[in-house]
Amino acid sequence: MKVTLLAYTQPVINEPALAADHNTATFLIEGISRAATHQIVRHRLASVSQESQRYVDLDKGGWGFIMPPAIAANPEARPILDRAWEDLTAAYRALRALGIRKEDARFLLPNAAETRLVLTMNFRAWAHFCWMRCDRAAQWEIRAVALEILRQLHALAPGVFAELAATFLDSPQPEHHP
Q1: Tell me, which fold does domain 2-52+113-169 have in CATH?
Q2: For the stretch 49-76, what's the b/e string if a residue is b when 16 or more beta carbons lie within 10 angstroms of its beta carbon?
Q3: What angle in degrees, to the nearest 10, is found between the helix axes of 140-156 and 123-133?
Q4: Could you tell me the mean pLDDT of each successive run of 10 residues in the chain, 178 residues long?
Q5: Partner of 159 at 20 to 30 A CA spacing, among 13, 39, 58, 129?
Q6: CB neighbour class for 150 (10 Å; exposed up to 12, middle 13-18, buried from 19)
Q7: What is the number of alpha carbons within 13 Å of residue 31 lying toward its C-beta?
Q8: Which residue among the candidates 106, 116, 124, 133 is catalytic per the annotation?
């Protein structure tokens, strides 16, 4: 997973409460699963552009899969997931060989399919995103994205993100495993 700050605006506003409404940040998030992006796009105040699977070509190594750490660490679980991905990849190729268009063949792709997206919000919306997604109860992948975004936002606007940084960065919470 890689999070890159693409752009931000910071009008000259010295009041953190006003800055939260008028400052924005745009991030490129790469190497995450579609399962994580389905959670991200629920943040309605965000502007989102996500890579379309219609234009990703499997024959050119265009997509991969995200392996959850719990499965990667389990020697019995990992081969099960690896086999499923191999079967799905073979099925996708077979459908394409039959002339099925990419947008129809992609229906069998799993939520683990790797993708990327560009995400823009104002600082107040980013703060809400971080409060929800940095919490230890959040799913591991979106939590990692949110923590990295918070690190970068706190460096940009420490006054706006001070409480969040103190809660999640200065004294990190342990992973939550229900």
Answers
A1: Alpha-Beta Plaits (3.30.70)
A2: ebbebeebebeeeebebbbbeeeeeeee
A3: 140
A4: 93 76 94 93 88 68 82 96 91 93 87 92 96 95 97 93 94 55
A5: 39
A6: buried
A7: 8
A8: 133
